[in-house]
């Protein structure tokens, strides 16, 4: 895409804020089309009904004194009410402060620290959990309570600009307390436009969401893009199992599911799923965590559907996506979105690596966050003096611009001065027939510094020494596993990433 063409896209994306999803309304053509189906409750809403809900919530917020950049707590499970409330807050000019409804008072209080909250939108269940915290969040709307909303009036005040904060989104927090990432209306709107240039949805698509819609992957890739395209958004039941996932896909005619690698792994291995169960889909999209190439290939072989992925992070939204019709090498996360600059840098020298060599992926673009709420030191450190976001992820570039994520710089295990990639070892472990799940960490050692240690979940009894030998035959000597332990399960977050404690202390 030429610079002038990208400029036109950029300007168009930022002209009508916060209408980057709704525009001027649902439109007469699709007003009576189903917008959302919540499989957990059986509730659905047409585009007209969802838009009306959004307007009524925005009107309630405006009448409650919420205006431009005022923070509004949002704590609802995936569903129609969450979607209406999310966009109602944006329409009123407010800032979404999303709290996980599955959390508790301690977690919520930590997230509220430093905020002056104008209002809160909760469900009856989260309201009970909030207890004494309700006095700290201003006026409360219990959105699923009958009669809580009237027909609503107008929305007062100035509409937000592209630089106004739309969402304070929690970072993944897999290695500590999550930070609140500042995402502006411009960040969200431009990123949706960027993605659409390479990976399109149409009004004929049926999109499946399995991750929380208040997380960046579910928010932007599934929820906002489905609504923007006037497609049907189907919200998976919880907890997701291979059986109920396949039933959902078949019942609703899902064409594009946005899944995570752990769910894909369960589908591939499940005896409850027939090889033809997913044949009606045009592609499977994986995100939220790295997708091993072997898993993607096994899924395509079994179900006959292309499996593609993208790359992003809360601090930068989506930065890479697999273009429609150009899957790239197995395991690749796609190419950089239009308007996104990338570098792959040698961490030792700070210079760009030779194409094909490994280095840290760095990103610069209009979707990149300005920093973290209430944490100026971390905000300054987020990008360097030239505006490059240091992702901490290791990557290699392929011909035609495709990129493969090879590991995480901060997760590298230091064994006798060598750097060992736990992601590479995990991929090899998952290739072994009896291994259901695996994670590799560094185990402290007085001599070696750290020893690569695997925790594995087995489908049936397996000699652990055979697994170590399987890995050893496929890596260089310094990359071998040194320790292995069987566990019943590996805790993972909603995006499929393992929840790691301090290295060497297990999972």
From TrEMBL:
Pfam families: AMP-binding, AMP-binding_C. Residues 31-373 form the AMP-dependent synthetase/ligase domain. The keyword Hydrolase does not apply. GO terms for molecular function: CoA-ligase activity. The keyword rRNA-binding does not apply. It comes from the Bacteria. It comes from Kutzneria albida DSM 43870. Belongs to the ATP-dependent AMP-binding enzyme family. InterPro entries: AMP-bd_C (IPR025110), AMP-bd_C_sf (IPR045851), AMP-dep_synth/lig_dom (IPR000873), ANL_N_sf (IPR042099). SUPFAM superfamilies: Acetyl-CoA synthetase-like. Keywords: Ligase. Residues 424-497 form the AMP-binding enzyme C-terminal domain. This is AMP-dependent synthetase and ligase.
